[in-house]
Amino acid sequence: MLGEMRGGNVGTHIEISTGSRRLLFFQGTESPWTFPVAVGKPSTPTPPGNYAVVSKIVNPGGILGTRWMGLSIPNGTYGIHGTTIPSSIGTYASNGCIRMHNQDVEKIFPMVAVGTPVVISSSPLDLQVQQRPPGEDGKTYTVQAGDTLWKISLRFGVPLDVLIQTNHLVNPDILQAGQIIRIP
Q1: Selection from 31, 182, 53 nearest residue 113 by Cα
Q2: What superfamily in CATH does domain 13-121 come from?
Q3: Which positions fall inside the L,D-TPase catalytic domain (predicted)?
Q4: According to the CATH classification, is domain 130-183 in 3.40.50.620?
Q5: Mean per-residue pLDDT for 124-137?
Q6: What pLDDT does residue 138 have?
Q7: Is the pLDDT of residue 168 over 70?
């Protein structure tokens, strides 16, 4: 399922890989922003499928962090939200929701409208260097364990500040294995 919407869809949408514990945020034809997430633990898995954002709340309280985006998943209350437990990000820890770092969910929240499509799949993301679609220059690189932005900069011959700006990195000192970095 992941990647199916990438083709001709020029609108904003979200894809979540529970296998890679990553959220990809697409806006227009730009390369997606990618964020580490926590997803449902084995006893309460995040349900795969095609959904939409049905509600948005600022400062929902409790473990939900600073933002909540409710999803149209039947038979329960599921959403994409921040967290008061940042150490859970990158793990299988939730009751089925998708947890993000508060600063990450705050970044995409204003750009997500009610009705935004959300695709959830258990398929892991392709962890290889990928060519971007025809007509777009550059490529993407998936961060591997032990990578730093400096190492990626040297590997591809791209200035560090250009990588930071191109990828909208809030904290370039923190990279997660599986994170997708756009190489201009």
Answers
A1: 53
A2: L,D-transpeptidase catalytic domain-like (2.40.440.10)
A3: 12-121
A4: no
A5: 43
A6: 57
A7: yes
